Amino acid sequence: MNAYSYSLFNSSRAARSSGSNQPVINVRSASLEDIPTLATVLTDSFHPPGGLMYLMHPLFKLGVCEDLRSRLRSNSSKYNCLVAISKDSQVTASKNVIVGTVEISVRSNCNSYSSIGSPYPYIANLAVDRPYRRQGVAKKLLTKCEQIARTWGFSELSLHVLENNERAKKLYLGTGYKLIKIESNFSNWFLNTPRRLLLSKKIQL
Question: Is 171 domain-assigned?
């Protein structure tokens, strides 16, 4: 998997009671100081530390840290890494907690998506800490991405999701994304790996 193409959920193992109120979530741009926590969220989401993967987990996290650091230091005007911050006092009384992240950037070409043209805004690496899933965190991050795309002058957003990721597909389709193309390659046929689905959403300028 390309290090820039992770896509949905995990990090701090804070316990939450089933009867607690939903946390207050704010979204802001990430800083270099956020990288260790973001790397944990992303690594736990896409490379869960279980079984044999437990031994590789530190290496995956290190790679994610370096990828994030490189992108944040690029200072590109058409790139933003967002973090979702919880103000839930049940988690901590001393500071806010990062519970989710997503990245949006403008890509220069898209051979598999001729209808959108070039350049185009693209969403990647959406992840939410497990205790905060199904509480609207991902939707808030996606909404912020739409706002950013508008400020950049675009009226459409695109992203990929694996065809076997039912939870992510339900999220994206439920927030207005439409299937544009099913992408296949040799590994899908010979290794039985899931295909990538290209989704797009029209947004109001």
Answer: yes
Contact 12, 97 (CB under 8 A): yes
Residue 10 forms part of a structural domain: no
Structure tokens at 45: 């989401």
Mean pLDDT, the chain, rounded, equals 83
CA end-to-end span of the chain, whole Å? 33
At which residue do the structure tokens 């109120």 appear? 21
Q: How far apart are CA 90 and CA 93, in angstroms?
A: 7
Instruction: Tell me how far the alpha carbon of residue 186 is from its chain's centroid.
Output: 26
CATH code for position 148: 3.40.630.30
Gap between the Cα atoms of 170 and 140, Å rounded: 15
DSSP designation for 33: G
Instruction: Please state, in angstroms and rounded to a whole number, the distance separating the CA atoms of residues 31 and 106.
Output: 19
Q: Is residue 189 part of a domain?
A: yes
Q: pLDDT, tens digit, for every residue of 114-171?
A: 455 678 999 999 999 988 999 999 999 999 999 999 999 999 999 999 999 999 999 9
Structure tokens at 75: 């200072």
Alpha-carbon torsion angle 160, 126, 82, 133, nearest 10: 150
Whole domain around residue 153: which residue ranges?
Answer: 25-202
